[in-house]
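seq:
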Amino acid sequence: MVNVVQSLRIAAGSIRSAKMRSILTTLGIVIGVAAVIANVSLGASFQQYFDEEIGSVGSNFIIINHLEPNIFHDNELELVENTPGIVVVSPIKQSLQKVTHLSTSRHLSVDGVSEEYETVANIKLEEGSFLSDQDKYVAVIGNDVAYKKFDRKFFTQNSIDITFRKDDGSEVTKRFKVKGILESPKTTMVQSPIAPDERIFIPISTWNEIQGEDDYGSFFAMASSMDTIQATSDDLDLKLGRHFGVPSGDMDDDDAKPYSIINQAEILKETDQMAGYLTALLTSVALISLIVGSIGIMNIMLVSVTERTQEIGILKSLGFTNINVLLLFIVESVVLSVIGGLLGIGLGILGAYGAQSLMGLPYAFPVELIVIGFSVSAIVGMIAGAYPANKAARMNTVDALRSE
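struct:
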């Protein structure tokens, strides 16, 4: 009776006797497994990147945007503040304005906010301090504004001129003293469109005074926890709907409301789904390489069976049963595939690390991928070797011995 250990010895001898062919055979599996490992790791890395980017915007945040002009005022701000589960709220107004420092002008995003924005948006400062409700003509600038947008670095107490364009087309320029500079963000693959690095923050009360307005563009609120953020968001939606006279039957229709609400949990869910779709797409492409590799093993095993016909006849004459021969070739196929799988796991880890480093993504490697890569390569080896092994097992002993 031939056991698995004996089959492994014979398989190892066969692989050593045709080293170049064995290397070329496993190459397809190496590439396939490496591609799967690298792509799944990249998918996990993208998901972590999205989560970190969304998390950097604020803590447990809820964003309430207007869909019709001039609908948010102090009454609406008070309504949001008094909603159970809301910890703090900052009104916001934002537009592109001309900003001048010395002789250099740039068009930059200027945001009117209240002092609560520092808490909601997780603001971290490199120099100075954030705005307070007592401030008037002061500004806090993003790190890119301080270091990259003008000819020289900004320091606190430097001044900038901001030119505001009014609705009637007229312009008014006001001078602001720099009170604080934001911390430099982490280096990432892309610049987030909601990151504060290229923005300038001024008191929203000063904004409205200059523009002669009394409304707010949106509200940026912080819920008490991520566990209750959806319930808080739904409660706020219901209160605002009643406030604006939205019929109860139309509350599920976003087009019927003059406002929109989105929270951090909803955004994270969407980005996680997007990362999942990306991972599935990349993995499906990588699986094609794995299928090609399995076909390569099957072809080589068929060639091996043909070349070793006489050997099969000798083995059968020495007492090898059909099951023994079947096991022998399946083991050889699995060994080739597993060797390729192990090499592919190593290559995939290196490839994922290199790609993540190159793109500035956080390093993410699910440890279970090692088990999955090993298991997949073993299964591929069994499937690819099944037909050639069955062909070898069913050979007639006499006919096999007569072959040349």
